[in-house]
Amino acid sequence: MSQPLPTEAELTEVADVTSQIRESISTVLSGMDTAVTATLATMLAEGHLLMEDVPGVGKTTLARALAASIDCSLGRLQFTPDLLPSDVTGVSIFRAADASFEFRPGPVFANVVIADEINRASPKTQSALLEAMAERSVTSDGTTRPLPRPFLVVATQNPIEMEGTYPLPEAQRDRFMAQVSVGYPSPQDEMSMLESHDGVDPLSLVTPVADTETIARLVDIARRVYTAPAIKQYIVDLATATRTDGALRLGASPRAALQLLAAAKSRAAMAARNHVLPDDIKALAVPVFAHRLISSTEARLAGRTSDQVIREILARTAVPSEARDVAPHRERAFTRTQAAPAQ
Question: Which secondary structure element, helix H or strand E, spans residue 49, and what is its range?
């Protein structure tokens, strides 16, 4: 039995709270609208985020600003080659007083977990974190312990410096719902940053605008956003196109299609809409799909990135358009039309 659509009051709450979080983050970082939108959509879709960019552009600061904007627990992991799986998940300590073992939770037992430079740890340690991401629980000494809700992992990695790193395998990259690049700020945004950071740490001034109970409620609301069959077919068409495109050696997985749907629902809810539009899919297709793809040798030699290939697929794939004769409060009907240029 399908769940009821979100009410107008519920959608208004989603839009208001996410807008307040966005404004709170903007007091610390400017000019990151695309990255912030993807981060919030990933959080409401109960996914995890991979941020890949050069050092010093604010990847970790964005994650810390998000955690500071929510009254929640924050875990921080600085990945190094000697980091052990138990440093991530926790360890059992023997108590001689009563000859028992006491489990001491690791940093992963937090609402927001920052995994800095995840590609610097060994594959064994990477897998410990990624297992917790997938199962949302940690098993130690035969006991399974659930992780808190909401639970968001924001992992960062540097694509430039490769010495002493262990690149994430494709199967592990597929665990991340989205990947974003922060990029360099515009001169105006950089000037604003210099002004706000002059003599003070703006993170210390951030106050929470929501709590974990509120975020969990928003997650449940976003999950009930309606998606028309034609929109789901649009997602399938895009995923299928990545698997047959000659420029790609590895296309999007079925998990990628499911996560694009979940992220699109979150974006719709953030806009106070009870239904997904093609624009939601087009806005999130690159962040959700691109990091899972492997370009062919010919495409790499031609300088074509996965992002470019996805945008080309978006441009040539037929887009559903809303029928004009459907009442606004009823479920939307969609028909197929010629592809529109991707934004």
Answer: strand 49-52
Q: Which two tokens stand for residue 13?
A: 């709450």
Cβ–Cβ < 8 Å for 169, 122:
no
pLDDT, tens digit (0-9, with 9 covering 90-100), for 33-47: 888 999 999 999 999
Collapsed DSSP state (helix, strand, coil) of residue 224? coil
Q: Which of 31, 30, 14, 60 is nearest to 225 (CA)?
A: 14
The secondary structure of residue 73, as a DSSP letter, is -
pTM of this structure: 0.87
Compute the Cα dihedral for 33, 40, 177, 243 and give only its sign: negative
Q: Under a CB-based contact definition with an 8 Å cutoff, are residues 284 and 49 in contact? A: no
Q: Which two tokens stand for residue 170?
A: 């494709």
The per-residue pLDDT for range 70-123, each reduced to its tens digit, is 999 999 999 988 999 999 999 888 888 887 888 899 999 999 999 998 888 888
Helix (H) / strand (E) containing 192: helix 187-197
Three-state SS for 95?
Answer: strand
Q: How far is CA 285 from CA 61, 206, 219, in A?
A: 25, 31, 20
